[in-house]
Amino acid sequence: MVKVGIVGGTGYTGVELLRLLARHPQAELVAITSRKEAGMPVADMFPNLRGHIDLRFCDPQEAGLDECDVVFFATPNGIAMQQARELLATGVRVIDLAADFRIQDIEVWQKWYGMEHACADLVAQAVYGLPEVNREQIKTARLIANPGCYPTAVQLGFLPLLEAGLVDERYLIADAKSGVSGAGRKAEVGALFAEAGDNFKAYAASGHRHLPEISQGLTRYAGTPVGLTFVPHLTPLIRGIHATLYARLTGEADFQALFEQRYQHEPFVDVLPFGAHPETRSVRGANTCRIALHRPQGGDMLVILAAIDNLVKGASGQAVQNMNIMFGLPETLGLELIGLLP
Ligand SMILES: NC(=O)C1=CN([C@@H]2O[C@H](COP(=O)(O)OP(=O)(O)OC[C@H]3O[C@@H](n4cnc5c(N)ncnc54)[C@H](OP(=O)(O)O)[C@@H]3O)[C@@H](O)[C@H]2O)C=CC1
Ligand SMILES: CC(=O)N[C@@H](CCC(=O)OP(=O)(O)O)C(=O)O
Known about the structure:
It is found in: Cytoplasm. The chain has helices at about 10-20, 40-45, 80-90, 105-115, 120-125, 130-140, 150-165, 195, 210-220, 255-260, 310-325; strands at about 1-5, 25-35, 70-75, 95, 125-130, 145, 170-180, 200, 230-235, 240-250, 270, 290-295, 300-310. The protein is α/β, with parallel strands linked by helices. The protein has two domains: about 1-125, NAD(P)-binding Rossmann-like Domain (Rossmann fold, 3-Layer(aba) Sandwich), CATH 3.40.50; about 150-310, Dihydrodipicolinate Reductase, domain 2 (2-Layer Sandwich), CATH 3.30.360. The chain has a seven-stranded mixed beta sheet. The chain has a six-stranded parallel beta sheet with strand order 2-1-3-4-6-5, with helices on both faces. The longest helix is centred in the middle third of the chain and has 16 residues, at about 150-165.
């Protein structure tokens, strides 16, 4: 059994980790932290976990995290980087769901995240936890930078085209929409029902902190710097990300076959028939990314549609997928979930 600790058990990614790990046949939850709720039974806060988890939240300082095999940080940006070194030194493996270890260029990270990095040297050791590109490195990783939600959908959508060198990498467009749970569980006016319900808007159109993360990945797959326009939107959904991606073609190929072959052995990427429209509800609660291709009017633009659940393949499901790979477990263990439709 893999002994698991979770720092930040009361946020949306934290409770999603709990939902997945409670039923995971090889995971034993030993510590779940919350500073504000220390002492409270987990199932009192999250009634869906009644009968599945009988632990109480505990303070991070008293959690005994160094006795775990792996610790997930489901905390705001800037927390894992303060504790990772100590945990790694005691042999604990770390999976950070925040962005502390995602960007290799520390100056770029500091600019976008507005803080000084506490352990820049560890960033070089971290493996970016997108199994579809880094599976081999994840197997032996001690520190995983779990990808952001938008970056997961956008990178999986562009990946086969950039690897094949069939699009103009200077003018990529990612038009992405997220549900409100992407903003986390903290109280925020913009996430109130009366603000986000029955409304639709773009935000951070001039620059979102996921831009450097996505660009870093796409540049690697293309083998040359990419030009990306990324505009996120807030939709009145609770869960889900839908990305509409645009790329100008520079060569001809059977694009459908290209995507199907690239993802044929990937358990969590589903390439739909050409011309289909993936829906967020088809992946709600599932660790799946559904992708479909379109070529409007047979022109030279390829449109890729990608849908994920931001809390599952976009966060906690992917984190458990990474744990499975790190501990030599079947990659799909505890993750064979079907989307909740309707
Ligand atoms: N929501 C999403 O769709 C996605 C989120 N992420 C990332 O995952 C991380 C968690 O997100 P989310 O669950 O939405 O966040 P929330 O804001 O909902 O939850 C944050 C959790 O962290 C704990 N926490 C806050 N500050 C500290 C601290 N200083 N030390 C220890 N624990 C702390 C909180 O509990 P307490 O204050 O009681 O200790 C709480 O349990 C974030 O970095 C986010 O960017 C990544 C992909 C998708
Ligand atoms: C809808 C919404 O607000 N989404 C969040 C992104 C989700 C996320 O948590 O990503 P990180 O892990 O990289 O922080 C945002 O745009 O800030």
